Task: inverse folding
């Protein structure tokens, strides 16, 4: 802004520092700016716009990083399903010497072993449930419409019975029953 001792870069930095630290007091202290000045900036439309832009930029960065993690995880999972898990396996080697003696040595070797069926089943079920959730379809975890309709019918029956009971109580008189003779 023209005529101000603070540059636009100072103001942009204030937006970033405010997002990092969350308090005017901390930002004013870090940037050596009077809190009243910072408060004035925070209450401007410009500051709100910059904050929203920073929020959007941060969210996009998080989404991009999450997608990289998902892509790498899926590639690793596919490799393990196709080629097996890495496992350190104990091996024995026999060496026959010229004098006829036999020397046995133990060593370890990294080998690929098929994923256990239980792990494949859990992995497949989890992936299917997540995919169905993305498509807004019922999963093994969520209820489907039929069971929801059944629960609603039970609830309606219980509410009807409770209402009938309340009406019956409202039409009755509490107290003693006495016989009236003519």
Result:
């Amino acid at each position: 802004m023209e005529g101000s001792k603070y540059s636009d870069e100072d103001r942009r930095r204030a937006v970033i520092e405010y997002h990092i630290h969350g308090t005017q007091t901390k930002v004013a202290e870090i940037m050596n700016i009077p809190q009243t000045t910072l408060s004035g900036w925070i209450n401007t439309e410009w500051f709100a716009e910059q904050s929203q832009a920073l929020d959007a930029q941060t969210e996009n960065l998080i989404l991009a990083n999450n997608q990289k993690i998902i892509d790498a995880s899926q590639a690793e999972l596919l490799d393990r399903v196709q080629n097996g898990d890495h496992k350190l396996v104990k091996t024995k080697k026999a060496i026959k010497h010229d004098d006829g003696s036999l020397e046995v040595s133990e060593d370890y070797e990294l080998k690929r072993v098929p994923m256990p069926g239980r792990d494949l089943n859990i992995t497949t079920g989890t992936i299917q449930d997540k995919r169905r959730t993305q498509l807004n379809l019922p999963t093994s975890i969520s209820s489907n419409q039929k069971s929801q309709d059944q629960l609603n019918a039970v609830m309606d029956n219980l509410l009807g019975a409770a209402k009938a009971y309340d009406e019956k109580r409202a039409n009755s008189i509490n107290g003693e029953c006495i016989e009236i003779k003519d």
In short: The CA atoms of residues 7 and 83 lie 58 Å apart. The chain is about 60% helix and 15% strand. The helical segments are 8-21, 24-31, 35-42, 45-83, 117-134, 145-170. Residues 45-83 form the longest helix (39 residues).
